[in-house]
Amino acid sequence: MSKCEDILARMILYLDDELEAQECGNIRVHLAGCASCRASFDSERRLLENVRGCGPLHVAPPELRARVEKLVSDRPMARFAPPELRERIRRTVEHFGSRNPRLRFVRPAIAMAAVLAVAMFVGLWLLNRSNRGPILRGPSQFAMLAADTHQRHIRGQLPLELVSDVPEQISNWFAGKVPFAVKLPNYQESSGQEKTYRLEGARLVGFKNDYAAYVAYQMRTRPISLVVTSDKVAQPTDGEQIVAKGITFHYNSINGLKVLTWSDRGLTYALVSDLEERGQQSCVVCHQGVKDQDFIESLKPR
Amino acid sequence: MSTATFSQAALEHLDSLYGYALILTRDQTAAEDLVQETYLRAVRAFGQLMANSNLKSWLFVIMRNAWLNQLRHTRSGPRFVELDDENVESVYQNDRVNEDPHVVYLRKLEREQIRLAIADLPELYREIIVLRDLEGFSYQEIATMLSCPAGTVMSRLGRARAKLRRALVSWQPRAAARAV
After folding, report:
1. Which of A178, A181, A182 is nearest to A207 (CA)?
2. CA nearest A148 in B: which residue?
3. Confidence class of residue A140 from pLDDT cuts 50, 70 and 90?
């Protein structure tokens, strides 16, 4: 990397005050002698100054200010000890622990007893586990979110942000809103088959400090939900596992809903419905083609 | 920090918190409720605030956590918000009165366009621009707030600014033509 490229790469860190003093000095020296970098720097700085100078974007309404002022002034007693008291107690406990020989003996004894108890518990658990068949653990957090989102949408608590039955329109709407690409297939159009389901629309749902994509369908008045996120955020690790087409599907029944979760090509999906068996018929929202019928059949309970 | 200092200092961040609540909820009433919930939680957890810690950053973290909690349990989902122009306008009433009225007008127009460009950004980008450029949090503080690595903050901020720049560049020629 040339000196100029290096400076340009670090310029934004400099403007954001994220560099050490020495690095700032190096950048200033370079800018003083390089007209080209100086021009880029000035342009970037102007943008940031303009953006930073346009705030605040909003002012709290006077009624809200009055409410908050009252809340803060009438506040109840804090439920937590203030920091000064916390520090005093810490010092007292440390002092007591180091001076009392009896306590010095008791603490390791308690720790050893605790280790033995944990070891016994783990041993019993392993023994019990070896006598059972494959373990079916509870549903994953992502599967729970999908089922909850499905139910709330049905109850009218999660209105769609985009109402559309055009897959491309929904795919485009998600662009820039979620940190991954969503591309809904349009099997019906390409296969020319009778419509067995209807695309309703989409919205964003919060999951682990980011957004997941939510798409709603209807199959003869029965709702189907598809929730998609990045496989870096969620991995379907629980439930009954069924392998089909090289993909491991995880099946859970949550509050009477059939939830299928799986990961494929960087994304993790959850499909929720109240359809029969494992709800495998809900897969037609993406797999409507005749050749996919075998795949759907393979998800049926044996 | 004494209780009186806490009350005074916490109230200084009310506008910032309200702005952030509008970004998160996209609804004025929900934003007001979220601000109130944030202060309520802050008041209850005041004892947990360590000496010399950043009160503003702490309040923002409380707000984000309260909002995530609401997302999981709320009965009504987020809706798009109509910005309250009257409130925004009042911010600029104290523009330096001694300046050339034309310059003041142009500056106001420019601020308005930047505001609109920020409002048009996708939510994740709008959030990061507000946290860094308007509220002045460091990369690390934002990373803590959003529970993501500082590298993610840097890359998301870079993309957000690039998008903002494109939006403003496409506006400038038209604005200049109007202003002349």
Report:
1. A178
2. B72
3. confident
